[in-house]
Each structure stands twice: as structure tokens, then as C-alpha cells.
Amino acid sequence: MGKIASMEYFRVPPRWLFVKITDEAGNVGWGEASLEGHTQAVEGCLDAWFARYTGLEADDIEHIWQMCWRTSFYRGGPVFMSALAGIDIALWDLKARKLGVAIHQLLGGKVRDKLKVYAWIGGNRPANVAKEALTPCAYRAARKEQGFNCVKMNATGDVGWLDSPSVLDSCVERVKAVKELGMDAGVDFHGRVHKPLAKQLVKLLEPHRPLFIEEPLLSEHIESIKILSEQTSVPIALGERLHSRWDVKPFLEAGCVDILQPDISHVGGISEMKRIAAMAEAYDVALAPHCPLGPIALAANCQVDLTCANFAIQEMSLGIHYNAGSQDLTSYIKNPEIWSVTDGYIDLLKGPGLGIEIDEEQVRALSKDAAAWVSPGFIGPDGEIREW
After folding, report:
1. Residue 32: which domain range?
2. Mean per-residue pLDDT for 211-239?
3. Banded model confidence at residue 132, pLDDT cuts 50, 70, 90
4. Residue 372 DSSP code
5. pTM
6. Would you please indicate which residues are annotated as catalytic (active-site) residues?
7. 339 shares its domain with 203
8. Residue 271 in 3-state DSSP?
9. Cis amide linkage into residue 289, ω under 30° from 0
10. How many CB atoms lie within 10 A of CB 337?
11. Domain Mandelate racemase/muconate lactonizing enzyme C-terminal, which positions (predicted)?
């Protein structure tokens, strides 16, 4: 056992928030509390919890998790659960490193030796996806050359509530272009496409057999997602804007999700991700964690993925458009080779802890005066605010 001696956070480019916890014996663990566009809110929550939890036993991970959840009175939501994720992941890393084992060993052991992964192509306003999938460009090497056989793209740019159906045509052509390269494609509607267009786009995509469609509608419209799920054979994926097992529960009960995509940095960390995965397994729903974030979040996901029978595929942010011109997934760690992809898979993370070695010198240097990332948003031609 060892009491928590210090807790710190580091805002780092491009848009990540790292957490470091140290116990009285000098054992260290790292977590990630990134919440895109809301860094300052998460930092405020961490300030309050750090003051309260310093001096507690670092090994008591579940007790600290329950304190964050139950003693706050107001619970859940993206800010609280992202702050909790940073603490929870760091505590798991600290404990596993202290014991000299990988985190997945403490979660029951692995059920696989490698993990299937996918990467992004295109930006928020999709460009030439086929070219990007095949040809190197400034900040992302060719996905096929990198070893990927599955990619994900945005379905559309910003669209109106009821837009011209012609805005859907390019999405279909981009999916066809990727499929012609021998790759599978997930299509992220990103909650941008409202019901009048979503119904049309799902029907147009169905003959081209996308791997999944993601957030076909915003998660607050569970009744419409259920109806849509009954109209198509395309697997429906969602979950990045669900922040706990209680948020996930109604979607599983409604039978309207085929692939669950919780974000480990938004659901309270490793502890809650493991519970959500078990719930999904009971409903025959696959796990494909959302992770367009940093190396700590990805490593935490991988440790859980290795232990879950219903794991399907892992998102990774290597070369994603958000990272262009800044740090990438291989930054802030001393063993970036762990993210090498071979035939669509990355190898087992062997540990100890998260299986990554943080370059603390780089973290501290780049966190100095780092600006908080702001979600850009979309504005329509008439001045309306559109879904981003």
C-alpha cells in the first residue's frame, strides 16, 4: 500500500490533458483526462478532486472511483467522467507498474495476442479520401502503406436540417473508392445528419456494405435511432457521447446499437470501460472503443481490449486531422514503435502498467503556456449554427 503524495495535470498540444499521480514511495502512474474543447472545465474538476484525494491509498482504485461518482451528488456527464478517467487510468498504471505487470493482467488476463485497429482518413470537411488512403501526404502516410486495412471517414461536412439530397452523393463515392482499394470503411455521420437526410444516406450506403455507420443521429434521439436500426442491415455504432453504464443501458435495452464505442477518457477510465464492455457482451453487442485522442488513452483502451471477448476493433489517432501540424500519437512517449501496424493489427502491449513509457521532459516542456483547444463549429450559409 502507498498513499497518494501528489497529483498533477498537464495541458499539452494538440488537445490533450494528461494526469500524473505519485505515491509516497515514488511510484508513478499516468492517465488521460482529455475532453475535446472543454479542457478548462476538466481542470477545474481535477483541482477540486486533487485537493480531496491526496493522502488516500493509491491502491484503492474502486473506492476512489466511487467517491468521485457518489459523493459529488451531481454525477456523470462529460466533465466529471473525463476528470475521473484521468485519475482512474493513472491509478491503474501506478498499481500495475508497482507490481511489475501489465494492466490487463490485473483485469483477468488477455484473451487475444494482438488488436485489430483502424485510422481516420479525410478531415472534418472530407477531401479526396481515396488519394489519402493510398498516397502519402504531409501529416499522414498512406494508410495501406502503414499497414491498415480498415479506415473511417466523415460522411459529410456540415449539412442543414433538410439539405439537398445531392450532398450525400460524395459520401457514397468515397466509400466506393476505399472499397476499391481492398479496404473496409466505417462511416461517421458525427451526429451532423438529421433524420430527413440520415434515412436517405443509410439506404444509399447499404449496397456498398460499410463496416458500420457511426452516430447516424445524435444520441438524445434514441427513439429515432431505434427506428433507423430497424430499417437497415448496416451495423450501427455509437457511444462516444455516453458517459457511464447508466447512459449506455437504455441503448442496449432498446436493441438499437450493434457496436458500442465508449471513450475511455469520457467514461471514467479503465474501471468503467471494463464494466460497460461486460454489459455489451450480455446483449451480443461488439466493443469498438472511441479514441481520437492521445497515447495514454489509446494504451488504456488496449489494456481493456485485450481482456474482452466482444472486442472488435480499436480506433487510433495516428495522423488524424486534429493532429496536423502538432504532436501526434507517437509523441510524449519513448517507445512509439508500439503503434506500428501490420496487416491491420498492433501487437500486444506487454507492460508494465499501460505499456508505454512517458517522456515526462517533453510533457513538461510542451505543457508550458499550452492553449486550450476550442471546437471549431460549423455555421451554415444563412448564419445558422450546424452540428459539428
Report:
1. 4-101
2. 97
3. low
4. P
5. 0.95
6. 190, 290
7. yes
8. helix
9. no
10. 9
11. 132-235
